[in-house]
Amino acid sequence: MNTDMTSARRLLSIRPSRLGTVAGIVFGLLALPLLGAHAQTTTVAPAKPIPTPASVSPQRATLTQAAENFEKAAGSEKDANKRAEFLWQAQVIRKRLAEGDFQTGHRILLFIAGDSALSDTFTVKSDQKLQLPNLPEISLAGILDSELQGYLETQLAKYIRDPSVRAQALLRVQVSGDVAKPGFYSIRTDTPVTDVVMNAGGPSQNAEMDKIELRRGSSTVVHRGGIQTAIQKELTMSDIGARSGDELYVPTKPGTSRWQKFAAITASIMGIVWAVAYLTNR
């Protein structure tokens, strides 16, 4: 009984300033989970390089069949939104078949056995043509990624005897918004959309993955619905018609402003400062 009374007296004898210190410690501890969430969104381990996709770029016949299937599905679909989505996908494929996969700024990693001058990275010009050293321009208009190596081998055979050709198409895009490492990345054209985001360190906990957009300058060329479909179906950057210089934008969820993150950090720091002051004054 005496022990209980002594403990009560000690509790009542704590000065108000120390009560504030204790409150500061508790407040700081409560803010730590928010600080941890902030740290998870800004301090992310370096991303691993994009692995070579297991899938092969689709052939022309496959794409043609896919466009026809989407058009048939749109013709029998009663829901207006789904019908519009089917028609959009068919339109993207038809445009790809007509124009090919290579636009201004695409880069071609080329290797010709025994020819060091032609073994380099070359950029597609504004007229969809490839200029190689000491050779006439080669048009890539209407050529698909899956056709590139065979096509270049046929074209180079006009000037080189039995050329052994290896070709890989590269795309330079910007990944911005709520990702760990925003910036420009050179990727394979047959890289899935989700892998492009992961190459930029991946999204934070506050990223809205269902609202990603593909932007070209001031325009949005693939809206959130199209990107969401691409993610679900594991479509590649070529599948969605991406071009060099495009921006893959990952938005942040509403309510996760910088001010909220700053407030969480400030609360935690103040709690730690109060705790240090209390311990040094004991």
Would you give an account of this structure?
This protein is of the alpha+beta class. It has a domain at 15-44 and 256-280. Helix content is 44%, strand content 18%. The protein has eight helices and nine strands. The protein has helices spanning 2-12, 16-42, 60-76, 80-99, 148-156, 193-199, 224-232, 258-280; strands spanning 107-112, 115-123, 129-130, 138-139, 165-177, 183-188, 213-216, 219-222, 247-250. Strands 1, 2, 5, 6, 7, 8 and 9 form a seven-stranded mixed beta sheet that branches. The chain has a two-stranded antiparallel ribbon with strand order 3-4. Strand 3 (129-130) and strand 4 (138-139) form a beta hairpin. It starts with a helix and ends with a helix.
Strand content: 15-25%
Estimated radius of gyration: 29 Å
Termini separation comes to 28 Å
* Class derived from helix and strand content: alpha+beta
Question: Tally of extended strands?
Answer: 9
Q: Quick check: average pLDDT?
A: 78
- Give the uncertain stretches in residue-range form: 1-54
Instruction: Write the H/E string, N to C.
Output: HHHHEEEEHEEHEEHEH
Helical region count?
8
Shape descriptor: flat
The major pleated sheet works out as: 7 strands, mixed
User: How much helix is in the residues?
Assistant: 40-55%
Q: What descriptors fit this protein?
A:
8 helices, 44% helix, two-stranded antiparallel ribbon, alpha+beta, seven-stranded mixed beta sheet
Brief digest:
The model is unreliable at 1-54 (pLDDT under 50).
Write the layout of secondary structure elements.
Elements: H1 2-12, H2 16-42, H3 60-76, H4 80-99, E1 107-112, E2 115-123, E3 129-130, E4 138-139, H5 148-156, E5 165-177, E6 183-188, H6 193-199, E7 213-216, E8 219-222, H7 224-232, E9 247-250, H8 258-280
Parallel strand pairs: 5-9
Antiparallel strand pairs: 1-2, 1-5, 3-4, 5-6, 7-8, 7-9
Helix pairs in contact: 2-8, 3-4
